[in-house]
Write a structure and sequence with these properties.
Order of helices and strands: EHEHEHEHHHEEEHEHHEHHHHEE
Low-confidence stretches: 109-124
Number of helices: 13
Distance between the termini: 12 Å
Structural class: alpha/beta
Helix content: 25-40%
Number of strands: 11
Oligomer: single chain
Length: about 375
Amino acid sequence: MTGAAIVGLGMTEQGRRLGISTRELRRRAIDAALADAGVPRERVDTVVCFGAMPEDLRYAGLSPRSSFALMSGGATPALSVVVAAGLVASGQAEYVLSVYGEAFTGATPRLEPNHGGGGRSDIGGYSYGYPYLYGLVGPGAVYAMAARRYLDVHGATSADLAEVAVVERGYGSVRPGAVGYGEPITVADHQASRLIVDPLRLLDCSRPTDGGVAIVVTSAERAADCAGVPVAVLGAGTGHNIANWWDGTMAGRFGALPDAAPRAFGQAGVGPGDIDVAQLYAPFTIATLMQLEEYGFCGEGEGPAFVRDGHTGPGGSLPTNTGGGQHSGFYATGFTPLSEGIMQIRGDAPTNQVPDAELCLVSGSGGNGGVQGSWAHVSLVLGRTR
């Protein structure tokens, strides 16, 4: 057990072309998180920023003892919880604020040098790593390689990926504000969507969205005095897929093994069978299948049947990505699964609340070790405070 708790969650509207600058999105998320926690600004002594955020502290009216940028791609939000827990445990901080905000599709003028809300159409992952020199461009190509290997090795098909998309769209189609709200899909719809990078189709892929998210982390003891319903960080683990580059297994793993998942489960004193709900970092459908297997929720090659049999859907043994995930909910990097995990444990998800959810597995992946796909990985086990 880490001894830390998440006591505040603040979220702005999430969507496309909101017309709000990144800095304003972050300020709004900070305001909401502090109000939720009942923590005044002057009590925040550390701020963890998702990447470089010049002027944000002044703009948001914060005066912490320390602040720093943390960047591990989509693993950053979950990693910030690990860092915050360490700062709290070591006595370096009492209240840690972690904040994210981006306007990938916003149409506002560029108000912030190199980091503004100026209608950026990409998610920043198109040219990292030397494989770019040889034509491996963009995250879709990387996930497509993993998908092609998976389908070939396990005899799966594109229709198995479609089942993942249909389940997550089902969750998103009833969540107001989600990108898939009011638009359920079928396997046939998925199969009819255009091919993006073989074997991934349009409905296998997430879409960039605008929005801000912030959380407040403190000790379990201080959490009792906060206004927000505390969520205990029971276990955490980190790993990195670059190790798998050297042994040639990178396309066969997502990064949870051998380090992140076992450490998180071990700290929490639980196993895969104890988890009530899972929120997975999965910007492409193949990532959901691979993680279900890597985390031990089902056996190798059994992910398609696990989804097809309804285990990840409403009422299943492991409801997964219950807000629609990054495909049909919204894309706030690793804050997509983390925010939904917090709400599920609190019991206040606006839709698709899992009854009596006590343990939630949250994953985050991103960054790279110089090779596209060599992502860092973070596992969190969140639970109710006792």
